[in-house]
Design a protein that fits this description.
The structure is a single chain. By secondary structure, the protein is mainly beta. The protein folds into two domains: 311 residues, Jelly Rolls; 93 residues, no CATH class. Helix content is 11%, strand content 29%. It contains six helices and 22 strands. The strands form five sheets. Strands 1, 4, 7, 11, 12, 18 and 21 form a seven-stranded antiparallel sheet that branches. A six-stranded antiparallel sheet has the order 2-5-20-8-9-10. It is globular and about 85 Å long. The two termini are 30 Å apart.
């Protein structure tokens, strides 16, 4: 295959050289930055593990261990080491680690900060009134799974992969950024209020998907191709607005899911919307499940109409599609003898996936008793053994607030500046 690098791209002002220290400062001086791994900074002694840039006076630099969650939970496979994460030697901040498409089903390596070293630390973002932003600079070779965050999906699901598992743990999810999940290649933010599942589904479903999608680029492509392939994935959760938003290269974009009741996963959110609506009606309604837990209802605010479209009008009956910020609802109205219209039916026609409305007032708050997960990069612990995301990761940053569009655009520009080699190389 012949690789073509447009000269106009390389000539862009965004590709001007930016010194390493200035790049790091752009991230760390962004208000709310609590940790930034650039895969350049390491421990001065010992194992020389990757450490994070942290605010002045911080006592925890969050050194990253290498682990294989299959060995830890199934007792199979070998130990992981730093040798399992090849280095690129350059990137937005001077270095990048590779997450490879492992072929051994007993080997799923990840980089992580153990729970014992992060509990109640600045990256342990949890509880009420807590916002969060995760930014990852990456090149996606394949996959749609985890990039970084505290998102132990649990190993307790009853499925073929968990047969004979030795360490069974429930979900310990708080927040994380994925490379798309249901919309592969998008920036997908995920948060959880309980660490476990949503809407009676076996999975957590409070997630968003950016409108734009990252390209697929071979991890062994020529250096000139990799240099122009960096993508800035980001997720923000703003507790004040209850909005969870995915951003790719500083842009979020609207994304809607039409006919959610037909979707493999989001049909659970549709059921939660329906049960919440029926529950608000007096008396037991047809189709209402009185055992459905109220804390799992999903009813985004529909108090401000954005637009109305008449789908059909037969004189005595009119069907409208009403759009609100997070939902599109099909409403059937019948005209009475007095000429007034009365609503006779209502159904959810579409759900907004970006931004996604989060129906809770908190992030999962684990106690210090083993019910909290680690912070992981490259993969998360889960009941399956899927390969997940593969490609290069050149930077991971965590903030304790929801960054603005302008701030994310500034961070995104770092991925479009000419990549540099690590200082000293």
């Amino acid at each position: 295959m012949k690789w073509f690098i447009p000269s106009l791209i390389l000539a862009s002002p965004l590709f001007a050289a930016v010194p390493y220290a200035d790049r790091v400062a752009t991230v760390t001086r962004t208000p709310g930055c609590v940790a930034f791994w650039d895969f350049v900074q390491r421990e001065p002694g010992g194992a020389h593990r990757f450490t994070a840039h942290v605010p002045a006076g911080a006592t925890n630099a969050f050194p990253l261990d290498a682990g294989n969650y299959i060995k830890d939970h199934w007792g199979e496979g070998r130990e992981a080491t730093y040798a399992d994460f090849p280095l690129l030697g350059r990137g937005p901040f001077g270095e990048a680690v590779r997450i490879r498409p492992e072929t051994d089903a007993t080997f799923r390596p990840l980089l992580f900060v153990p729970r014992a070293r992060l509990h109640d630390s600045p990256i342990d973002l949890k509880g009420p009134n807590q916002s969060v932003t995760v930014v990852v600079w990456a090149i996606r070779e394949s996959g749609n799974h985890a990039l970084a965050g505290i998102w132990h999906e649990g190993t307790d699901l009853k499925q073929d992969e968990t047969a004979g598992i030795k360490k069974v743990e429930r979900g310990q999810r708080q927040y994380a950024l994925f490379a798309g999940l249901n919309k592969a290649g998008s920036a997908c933010g995920h948060v959880s209020e309980n660490g476990a599942s949503s809407f009676l589904n076996k999975y957590a479903l409070h997630k968003c998907n950016s409108a734009d999608v990252s390209p697929v680029v071979p991890a062994d492509a020529p250096a000139a191709v990799l240099d122009t392939a960096w993508q800035c994935f980001a997720m923000t959760f703003d507790h004040a607005t209850h909005e969870l938003t995915g951003w790719l290269n500083g842009k979020f974009g609207d994304r809607w899911l039409e006919n959610p009741k037909a979707d493999t996963l989001i049909k659970s959110a549709y059921s939660a919307w329906l049960q919440g609506r029926l529950h608000r009606e007096p008396g037991l309604q047809p189709g209402e499940d009185p055992a459905f837990p109220p804390d799992q209802f999903y009813n985004p605010p529909e108090n401000q109409l954005v637009a109305t479209k008449v789908l059909r009008d037969s004189g005595d009956e009119r069907v409208e599609l009403r759009e609100y910020r997070y939902t599109r609802v099909q409403v059937t109205l019948r005209q009475g003898a007095d000429g007034k219209y009365t609503e006779t039916a209502r159904d959810l026609a579409a759900l907004r996936l970006n931004p996604w409305w989060y129906s809770h007032d908190r992030l999962y708050t684990p106690a210090n008793d083993g019910t909290g997960g680690p912070f992981t990069i490259g993969r998360v612990i889960h009941s399956g053994r899927s390969v997940g995301f593969t490609g290069w990761i050149g930077g991971v940053a965590v903030f304790n607030r929801a960054l603005s569009a302008a701030e994310l655009a500034r961070l995104s520009a770092l991925g479009r500046a000419a990549p540099i080699a690590a200082p000293g190389r």
